[in-house]
Amino acid sequence: MIIKNVKVYTEDKEFCEGKIVIENGKFSSVFPGEERTDDEIVDGEGCYAIPGLIDLHFHGCDGYDICDGTKEALEKIARYEASIGVTGICPATMTLPQQELMHILSVAASYKEAADQERGAAADLLGINMEGPFISVEKKGAQDQRHIVPCDQELCQQFLDASKGLVKFVGVAPERSQDTLQFIRQMKDKVNISLAHTNADYDTAKAAFDAGANHAVHLYNAMPAFTHRSPGVVGAVSDSPHVNAELICDGVHIHPSVVRATFKMMGQDRMILISDSMRATGMPDGRYLLGGLEVDVVGNRAVLASNGALAGSATNLMDCMRTAVKVMGISLEDAVACATVNPAKALGVFENYGSIAPGKNADVVLLDQDLNLKMVVKSGVRIPS
Q1: What is the pLDDT of residues 347-377, one digit of tens each?
Q2: To bridge 65 with a disulfide, which of 47, 60, 131, 225 should be the other Cys (CB 3.0-4.6 Å)?
């Protein structure tokens, strides 16, 4: 396949007029010479050609959730995500009973083994992001506090083993235990350690990052506010250059001014756009379950039925990226990087995903000038719209 007449997003994070050659499910070359007569030719009609997006923190969509613990749920989620241009996924688990989490992780591992052989019209399962259970009660958000437990190295290892290494992020609230820093030092070389749903002050968060934690779950949400005398987790992230930070740019979770300020403060290389979407994404308004808790969804706003607290989002990552550009004033070049390059690097899969370059998986999305989705190619095959 050759996709011509497109503005290709390069590894220099800029758009250049050109064309893309795909062979055997991989990018063969970019800006090639003459086409061969036996190639399928696709006229991109001047569209932007960007890598398939990667969502490394979301719970579900299309009526399904990873915590359903079934291969069917994972298949439905992966197919929905690919259909809207998200070709790599790292769904997030909730704070649930430990044996239930073990089951969810083992099912995901089994699903991945089978899915990797098929490479169909579904997003690739690149990892799992464990948002709980090592979090705080004070900042639990939509997590069920009955199942919150302190950091435990043995339990964490059991999670990693159950997932057959598929777990890529484990969240912690470092203020909960004096043993957390030791936990981070012991586990950081096995899995990325995030600060998640935490009430930590600046000093506690900074100590966790200094110990080896390298990721912040949905920055600003489920953590102390960033103020001039108490900078909290956000200040500690800013002062820790090795730490990446997730941002939910759905227009509900973070004010556009704060998003712009965060990009200026920390730089786009550390920002990762996520959706944090729940099963209501792509579904009608109504009442849904998230981690066993009832959530009411109206439009793109999802709140706990019990107290009205925000409970994930009902917006997919492609729409979050559009919002970042069209509403929040982030450049398209930066927004694309934060939804492709940065998550691929954080997941450790940039060798095969996250950019349009020879040898990488041929996952490419065409967007028109208004950022409307025109085409998705997954592993070199067009996904029917």
Answers
A1: 999 999 999 999 999 999 999 999 999 999 9
A2: 60
pLDDT digits (tens, 9 = 90+) for 268-287: 999 999 999 999 999 999 99
Tokens 């500690």 sit on residue: 236
Q: How far is 319 from 255, CA to CA, in rounded Å?
A: 16
3-state DSSP: the chain helix, strand, coil percent, rounded to 5? 30, 25, 45
Please determine, for residue 126, whether its predicted confidence score (pLDDT) is greater than 80. Answer: yes
CB distance 80 to 133 below 8 Å = no
Query: Rounded to whole angstroms, how far apart are CA atoms 352 and 336?
Result: 17
The strand pairing partners of 29, in sequence order, are: 21
What the block records as the tokens of 60 is 């579900």
* Residues with a known catalytic role: 276
**DSSP symbols for 302-342:** EEETTT--B-SBS--HHHHHHHHHHTT---HHHHHHHHTHH
Helices (H), the chain: 71-83, 98-118, 153-162, 180-187, 202-211, 232-238, 256-266, 317-326, 332-339, 341-347
Which residue in 197, 219, 217, 200 sits closest to 208, CA to CA? 200
- On whether the pTM is more than 0.85, the answer is yes
